[in-house]
Automatic annotation (TrEMBL), chain A:
Pfam families on file: Fer2_4, Fer4_Nqo3, Molybdop_Fe4S4, Molybdopterin, Molydop_binding, NADH-G_4Fe-4S_3
Gene Ontology CC entries for this record: membrane
Residue ranges of coiled coil: none
Keywords carried by this UniProt record: 2Fe-2S, 4Fe-4S, Iron, Iron-sulfur, Membrane, Metal-binding, NAD, Oxidoreductase, Repeat, Translocase, Ubiquinone
Every 2Fe-2S ferredoxin-type domain range: 2-81
Name of the protein this chain belongs to: NADH-ubiquinone oxidoreductase chain G
Required cofactor names: [4Fe-4S] cluster; [2Fe-2S] cluster
GO biological process: ATP synthesis coupled electron transport
UniProt cross-references to PANTHER family, sorted A to Z: FORMATE DEHYDROGENASE H, RESPIRATORY NITRATE REDUCTASE
Domain of life: Bacteria
Stated family: Belongs to the complex I 75 kDa subunit family.
GO molecular function per UniProt: 2 iron, 2 sulfur cluster binding; 4 iron, 4 sulfur cluster binding; metal ion binding; molybdopterin cofactor binding; NADH dehydrogenase (ubiquinone) activity; NADH dehydrogenase activity
Organism of this sequence: Candidatus Jettenia ecosi
Residue stretches making up the 4Fe-4S Mo/W bis-MGD-type domain: 218-274
TrEMBL record, chain B:
Organism: Candidatus Jettenia ecosi
PROSITE patterns: 4FE4S_FER_1 (PS00198), 4FE4S_FER_2 (PS51379)
4Fe-4S ferredoxin-type domain sequence ranges: 44-74, 85-114
UniProt-listed Gene3D superfamilies: 3.30.70.3270
Cofactor: record remark: Binds 2 [4Fe-4S] clusters per subunit.
GO cellular component: plasma membrane
Subcellular location: Cell membrane
The enzyme's E.C. designation: 7.1.1.-
Reported cofactor(s): [4Fe-4S] cluster
Name this polypeptide is given: NADH-quinone oxidoreductase subunit I
Binding site for [4Fe-4S] cluster 1: C54, C57, C60, C104
């Protein structure tokens, strides 16, 4: 990129071409006052404060934010004339600005205040005319005070550009201009709080803060968000040992200061009164508080008894998608070496059993995304079976950045119509018919080959089994695929052409694909597509197309990396391999008996239901409501004699347990999380658990091991991570202290070591599509998905999130609803062969006919007890109707 | 040499017999006359609505050199007003500098003449209620 040299305030600086003076100065530590310019947003040039003296060919006054740099330019920031101008601008701004600094939460970090102070403004020459506009409090989270607004337009741009919602804009003209929603309707947006983060004054206020502190009183510490798998860096603002609010920093973390509603406002669960306070032991059907010592003594005695009677195999362990890597590593080490069982699993693996091996395979073959940032750098984005806005809102923000900055093309394919806000120039939204993912991907591959969209000669030379491809696709016709998928042939051709367009392509494989019964073949087909696109790309060092596998929770990736799965030891080394076993035995100093790695059944709940498990150790999970078949889990729990649950709250699962151990939340513990882009990030301990006698999971396991007669000498998660570094090959090179400054990308180090000249391999699969048996009694298919406002147990204890979306809806197609005379808001019963649930109906055009969509993240709605699998046949009727 | 001694004695005797020259106050029977700018304990003032005038801006706590003030703000759910849920003043630490009074944007803190602060406990923290009661006792009309 061409660089430009210029002089700002006698300092010579070098910046890329096209930068404006404001940004150039900002990057080089020269301060120019300004209210409307924000590095993340487009220029607006509304506040008129950043006037500087610019000498190019002649000397003139320019606005720094709107003037690009040129070679040899001389900029003076503080000439007397400029300062005089600025002061008068400020006087105008302050003439009608409400003087409510003492009660304004922004005071102390307010740009307007800072500039007033810096320019040493004396009382204004103008008569102050206050606007006395009423404060808008139409939602439980954000408050808009127009009296404090300086009309800088930052919130308007942030809403439009970053979040893509465009819920707010300037209303009216001239002196009457104000920021607000169309027709002054209540704010209806995703409540990402972006407006709040960029507002230079106190117009937007966080209502969840409730005046519980002032900016200068807060201690700000960065940590990682505990909700979705994006792994945003959040800044917790604490005062006297309690978390008061969450802010973001534009310069740290992969999210660049963008957050979603959960990250920014869903922190109240940390200080929830409903948290578990002491260990609980169930006696005669009721929980009794006990001391840690007694509880651990009791558990170890019971577990020892089970081991003596039935062997370690009779104990199962479920690791957590929400706990740190250290907790999970120790958990599987404890289960394997102390309890002597390999019956361990995690819910991510249970829900999508084929994902781990395929994910690791694609990392090794260099076709997996090595970081979430690849979305941002992509020129073509292909979201396959994922609802970005709901599942990974900040990744959606990254996609919008790619659309804005790289002019990226966007292809979204899903069963339902997905609302992704933000429009690309080439914007394709496809809905394929239920179960036809593989024919769709195959059609794309077929079109790519037929139309020679890639360099076939090159592909042939770099793919070792390329000759199999024409054979496999001989009988496959795009026309038939078009009929099966319900996507027109022309549309598929356009999609294929867009995909193979020059530039990087990021394919996001969503949860709908990963959890599908045909997930293995679908992912393989996607990998083939990636391989084809990469094989023909010029060797520029990095792959052209990359696959990003979406994960649901903050550490869904980490729990699998740490080997809380029966098939793998930490770092995806297979347990069936004897050499891997010996290696781990040497590292841990234990001896495994061979029979523990033999498995009768893949699924831990199936084992339990068959009565093979006598004890179950669950760390930080609530499978009863988060596993697709709740009834199966319930039966499994009833069959299992002794259950230990370790959690923050008394969840549905914990209520069935025999012993419940309280653990700490993310703000109270240290460790590392791995996000879905395989980026390991460190979270910091910010507060001490107050009012609860809770311990971090790793500490509980250590003490537990001690009671079982083993000694784990870990003083902190740092020690555990250093062991992980030596034991887990994919994490080698990780350093706990270095993580504080820089995140660790394990996928890039693994695929970086890949032999570049190695040939790609295609994994040809049959283009079969999933058929759901039409059932007369249960004519609908229940499809579940994620929700933006809720995730896991934590969100339901965060009042802000519950108040924004208190209710779960059953989304139905208009035609279906019409047939049954169901209207928006009617109570409907969804009944499967197992169970039924009553929900309010939401009639939309989003779901195709015959499919009813319910979000499964509302944990208090037992939708998973209705489900019998991934897709459940159900019947729907009005509540007051036939029963 | 004796002359200055006598001079001094004369003054002493004069003072001794003059009732107007007595400076010792009969405290506690007699209340001391305090100067108008005397700085006693910071007291919370009451506003027109009968509630504390304080808006929990925290400036007093910020400006306090001995860090003796703790303010915890909260929202009044009905009026959406900002009010101090907790206002504590550690009288042991207070140095009666009056910065809090000066910093207060709404004149909710005034140092009046409360100076009798001795206590039998080893702490002397005034909470919001106590600080407001001091003002209430004065029966100042608003």
């Amino acid at each position: 990129m061409k660089t430009i040299n210029l002089v700002v305030d006698d300092k010579t600086i070098t910046v890329p071409e096209g930068t404006n003076i404001f940004q150039a100065s900002l990057d080089n530590g020269i301060y120019i006052p300004g209210l409307c310019y924000h590095p993340k947003l487009s220029q607006f040039g509304g506040c008129r404060l950043c006037m500087v003296e610019v000498t190019e060919r002649r000397t003139a006054h320019r606005f720094a934010c709107a003037h690009p740099v040129s070679e040899g330019m001389i900029v003076k920031v503080n000439t007397p004339k400029v300062v005089r101008y600025r002061r008068s601008v400020m006087e105008y701004l302050l003439a009608h600005h409400e003087l409510s600094c003492p009660t304004c939460d922004k005071a102390g970090e307010c740009s307007l205040q800072d500039i007033t102070h810096e320019l040493m403004l004396s009382p204004s020459r103008f008569n102050a005319v206050r606007m006395n506009a009423p404060v808008v409090r139409d939602n439980p989270i954000l408050e808009l005070n127009r009296n404090r607004c300086v009309l800088c337009g930052r919130c308007v741009s942030a809403c439009k550009e970053i979040e893509g919602v465009g819920a707010i804009d300037f209303q009216k003209r001239g002196i009457k201009t104000y920021v607000g929603t169309a027709f002054d309707k209540p704010l209806d947006c995703s409540f990402c709080g972006g407006c709040l983060a960029v507002c230079p004054t106190g117009s937007w206020q966080d209502r969840t803060l409730e005046f519980r502190g002032r900016p200068w009183e807060f201690k700000k510490t960065q940590t990682i968000c505990p909700y979705c798998a994006v792994g945003c860096t959040i800044v917790l603002n604490t005062k006297s040992g309690s978390v008061r609010r969450v802010t973001s920093d534009d310069y740290i973390g992969i999210n660049e200061g963008n957050l979603c509603i959960k990250g920014r406002f869903g922190h109240e669960f940390i200080h929830s009164a409903e948290r578990l306070k002491t260990p609980l032991i169930k006696k005669d059907g009721a929980f009794h508080p006990s001391s840690w010592d007694d509880a651990l003594e009791y558990i170890s005695k019971r577990f020892q008894q089970i081991i003596n009677e039935h062997g370690g195999k009779a104990i199962g362990g479920i690791g957590s998608e929400k706990c740190t890597n250290e907790d999970n590593y120790l958990f599987q080490k404890f289960c394997r070496s102390v309890l002597r069982t390999n019956t361990i699993d995690n819910l991510s693996n249970l829900r999508s059993p084929s994902l781990n091996s395929l994910m690791y395979e694609s990392v090794i073959r260099g076709i997996a995304s090595t970081s979430l940032k690849e979305i941002e750098h992509a020129n073509t984005l292909f979201f396959f079976g994922t609802d970005m806005t709901e599942a990974h809102p900040v990744a959606g923000t990254m996609a919008r950045k790619a659309i804005r900055m790289n002019n990226a093309s966007l292809i979204i394919a899903n069963i339902r119509t997905i609302s992704f806000s933000g429009t690309a120039k080439n914007d394709i939204r496809l809905t394929y018919s239920f179960g036809s993912q593989i024919p769709f991907i195959h059609a794309l591959i077929k079109i790519i080959i037929d139309e020679k969209l890639i360099d076939l000669k090159k592909a042939e030379s770099s793919i070792s089994n390329f000759h199999e491809l024409p054979l496999a696709f001989d009988t496959f016709s795009v026309k038939e695929a078009s009929q099966v998928t319900g996507i027109s042939e022309e549309m598929m051709r356009t999609t294929a052409r867009l995909l193979t367009k020059s530039g990087n392509c990021c394919i996001v494989c969503g949860r709908d694909v990963e959890e599908d019964p045909l997930s293995r073949d679908t992912i393989k087909a996607l990998m083939n597509l990636c391989v084809l696109m990469n094989a023909s790309s010029p060797d520029t060092g990095h792959s052209k197309a990359s696959l990003l596998f979406s994960r649901s929770h903050n550490n869904s990736q980490g729990v699998n990396d740490m080997g809380v799965v029966p098939e793998f030891f930490p770092g995806y080394s297979t347990t069936s391999d004897v050499s891997n076993r010996e290696n781990i035995e040497k590292q841990w100093g234990v001896k495994f008996s061979d029979d523990i790695f033999m498995r009768e059944s893949k699924n831990i709940f199936e084992l339990a239901r068959n009565g093979a498990l006598k004890g179950l150790y669950i760390m930080g999970e609530n499978p009863l409501v988060s596993y697709p078949n709740g009834k199966e889990v319930l039966e499994a729990f009833q069959k299992t004699g002794f259950i230990v649950v370790q959690d923050v709250f008394l969840t549905e699962t914990a209520q069935l347990a025999d012993v419940v151990l309280p653990t700490v939340t993310f703000a109270e513990k240290e460790g590392t999380f791995t996000n879905m882009g395989m980026t390991v990030q460190r979270l910091n301990k910010i507060i001490q658990p107050s009012g609860v006698d809770a311990k971090p999971d790793w500490q509980i396991i250590c003490e537990f091991a001690k009671k079982m007669g083993y000694s784990y000498s870990y003083a902190s998660p740092k020690d555990i991570l250093s062991e992980i570094e030596s034991v887990v090959p994919i994490y080698s090179g990780i350093n706990y202290d270095r993580l504080k400054r820089k995140e660790f990308y394990w996928a890039s180090s693994v695929s970086g070591s890949r032999n570049k000249s190695a040939k790609y391999l295609l994994n040809i699969v049959q283009p079969e599509s999933l058929e759901i048996k039409q059932n007369k009694d249960f004519p609908f298919v229940l499809l579940t998905g994620v929700s933006l406002n809720h995730q896991g147990t934590f969100s339901r204890y965060s009042n802000a999130l519950v108040s924004v979306s208190p209710e779960c809806f059953a989304e139905m197609n208009r035609k279906d609803a019409q047939k049954m005379n169901i209207h928006d808001g009617d109570a409907v019963v969804i009944e499967s062969s197992q169970n039924k649930v009553t929900l309010k109906a939401k009639v939309t055009g989003k779901s195709p006919e015959g499919i009813v969509f319910v979000s499964e993240d509302y944990e208090w709605i037992p939708i998973n007890l209705v489900r019998t699998g991934v897709y459940t046949p159900v019947k729907i009727y009005k509540e007051t109707g036939q029963i | 040499m004796i002359l200055p001694l006598l001079k001094g004695l004369i003054l002493t005797i004069k003072r001794f017999f003059n009732p107007n020259a007595v400076v010792t106050q009969q405290y506690p029977e007699e209340r001391p006359k305090l100067p108008s700018r005397f700085r006693g304990l910071p007291e919370l003032q009451i506003g027109k609505d009968g509630r504390e005038r304080c808006i929990a801006c925290g400036l007093c706590a910020k400006v306090c050199p001995s860090k003796c003030i703790t303010v915890e703000g909260a929202t009044d759910k009905i009026t959406q007003r900002r009010y101090p849920k907790v206002y504590e003043l550690d009288a042991f630490r207070c140095i009666f500098c009056g910065f809090c009074e000066e910093a207060c944007p709404v004149r909710a803190v005034i140092l009046r003449d409360t100076f009798e602060l001795s206590t039998y406990q080893n702490k002397n923290i005034f909470d919001k209620k106590q600080l407001l009661d001091l003002t209430k006792k004065r029966k100042i009309s608003f």
